[in-house]
Amino acid sequence: MNLKGRDFLKLLDFTPEEIVYLLDLAAELKDKKKKGIPVDTLRGKNVALIFEKTSTRTRCAFEVAAHDLGLGTTYLDPAGSQIGKKESIADTARVLSGMYEGIEYRGFGQEIVEELAKYSSVPVWNGLTNEFHPTQMLADLLTIREQFGRLKGIKLTYMGDARYNMGNSLMVACAKMGMHFTACTTAKYFPAEELVAQCKEIAAQTGGSVTLTEDAVAGTKDVDVIYTDVWVSMGEPDDVWEERIRELSPYQVTAQIMKNAGEKAIFMHCLPAFHDLKTKIGAEMGERFGIKEMEVTDEVFESPQSRVFEEAENRMHSIKAVMAATL
Ligand code: CP
Ligand code: NVA
Fold first, then answer.
1. Cis omega before residue 16 (within 30°)?
2. Which of these, 139, 187, 192, lies nearest to 164 by C-alpha position?
3. Which residues are catalytic?
4. Per-residue confidence (pLDDT) for residue 107, from 0 to 100
5. Which residue of 56, 63, 311 sits with most ligand 1 atoms within 8 Å of its CB, as the best mutation to test the pocket?
6. In the chain, % of residues over pLDDT 70
7. Other Cβ atoms within 10 Å of 67 Cβ, number
8. What whole-number distance in Å separates Cα of residue 234 and Cα of residue 260?
9. pLDDT by residue (tens digit) across 73-106?
10. What is the per-residue pLDDT for 222?
11. Cβ atoms of residues 145 and 151 within 8 Å
């Protein structure tokens, strides 16, 4: 397997074998990190980390992983560069390609990261767009594999806004790996028909499946993984909160949902999560709508079934694998 020089823009571009290769590499790098065995084979190279949206996990994961690999980093924050405002993506790609061996990009439309990759002569890694979050997928698959010892046949139900980056990406990831994906939400929030059709085709070849349901009981019965994400994503207008809370509250992950899934089921969330009132937005919504939690209850978030912090740590090991494999 040789992924040198490849971009990492979405899982749709990768075969199941290539994804397994990245997961195995992430597991190996994780094991070495735990044992204190250094893997700094990329010394002397540099990567640019462009963030047009804010981040905690993705930025820290890229920076720590790069440091461990011996790579130098430059962080470009949402306000601190010329990108898009004074300089086109195509020009930025060609400028950065002359100084760096790799470029991470977090931003808005998927077409922007695809354009960056088109004009860049070095690998480009998608650190989240509106449509996809592929490095999150590697961390999630790694976490699920660590839990159940396999991916094939695992049943994952995604609740909430399934038509955005996380719902889309999980549907693709499950289809690729022969897993059973269910989007459990009100029909308005189902992933786009075209992507659903594409994933059903992939799933038909891998032994997986794609199901869309509005039934929160049937959709979560005896599944292995319950997954959710924020109801309003970065870049969306503030005035959608009221509608989202009203429409998605029936799909909140509660202790009852976890009980329906069964004792062996785990809870996952890409984070950050609104599971209490200890954030500015959480407190504001609490006051406006008289709620104390949103997409997941604090009880589930803090329960022994929750794997959210293992998942967050795995962002670093899997992002390290992406850089190590493609550079
Ligand atoms: N899960 C995730 O991408 O988190 P950040 O927004 O903090 O990077
Ligand atoms: N759907 C979320 C994911 C954050 C990691 C967002 O785009 O804000």
1. no
2. 192
3. 106, 133, 136, 229, 270, 315
4. 96
5. 56
6. 100
7. 13
8. 31
9. 999 998 888 888 899 999 999 999 999 999 999 9
10. 98
11. yes
Report the nearest atom of ligand 1 relative to the CA of 56. 7
Q: How far is the CA of 322 from the centre of ligand 2 (A)?
A: 20
pTM over cut 0.70: yes
Chain Cα centroid distance, residue 64: 18
Please name which of 252, 230, 142 lies closest in space to residue 186, comparing C-alpha atoms. Answer: 252
Q: How many CB atoms lie within 10 A of CB 321?
A: 27
**Which residues does residue 61 pair with via DSSP β-bridges, in sequence order?**
none
Amino acid found at 145: R
Minimum CA distance residue for ligand 2 atom 6: 233
- The whole-number pLDDT of residue 82 equals 87
The tokens for 16 are 């199941």
C-alpha 252/C-alpha 191 separation (Å) is 18
Mean pLDDT over 216-238 rounds to: 98
CA dihedral for 310, 315, 321, 322, sign (positive or negative): positive
